[in-house]
Design goal:
With 165 residues, the protein is of the alpha+beta class. The chain is built from four helices and seven strands, in the order ββαβαββββαα. It has two domains: 1-47 and 58-69, no CATH class; 77-151, no CATH class. It binds zinc ion (ZN) (4 copies).
């Protein structure tokens, strides 16, 4: 579990009141009204919310999973250092990698294939250098049209942006 932090001032001077419901003390002072937010999805708790039991904002659990700083630590996994959860670029389904085989996974819901490390759907990844050179010279290769810049582990920020979460 992440250390509780305020999504507005990013400080940890927060009071967790009820499960996901929290209040930031510095922000409340600054804004001269109670600044309440959801610990899980890191958004302001709606003023008109009838309850403080559970968050009613859309995609709360999806955002919470993508914002989590839990990483895959298995040294034998091809996706070591990646966030534990990814959102499928095709359908937003929350997916994880079983640690076996190459970084590419296929979403069981929409069959979109993508690289768990860099989130690209056509990642050249760790492909062999010969194929890379052929693709570079414009010679017919199975990698034509691929993004041949190196595969780097990215965080989930771009998923949140792309899906408007
Ligand atoms: Zn704050
Ligand atoms: Zn929430
Ligand atoms: Zn999918
Ligand atoms: Zn990749």
């Amino acid at each position: 579990m992440n250390v509780p932090k305020c999504p507005s001032c990013h400080q940890s001077d927060v009071r967790v009141l009820d499960g996901q419901y929290a209040i930031c003390k510095p922000c409340s002072k600054l804004k001269r009204s109670v600044f309440q937010f959801c610990l899980a999805c890191q958004r302001e708790w709606p003023r008109n919310s009838p309850t403080t039991d559970s968050c009613t904002l859309p995609n709360c659990s999806l955002r919470a999973a993508l914002l989590s700083n839990t990483e895959i630590t298995d040294p034998h996994s091809s996706v070591r250092g990646c966030p534990y959860f990814r959102a499928c670029p095709g359908c937003k389904a929350l997916l994880t990698h079983n640690g076996k085989g190459c970084p590419n996974i296929i979403c069981p819901h929409c069959r979109t294939a993508f690289c768990f490390r860099c989130l690209r759907q056509r990642c050249f990844g760790m492909g062999n250098i010969e194929a890379f050179l052929l693709a570079n010279r414009g010679i017919e290769s199975p990698f034509q049209g691929y993004d041949i810049t190196p595969c780097r582990v990215v965080d989930n920020k771009q998923s949140l942006t792309v899906f408007g979460l």
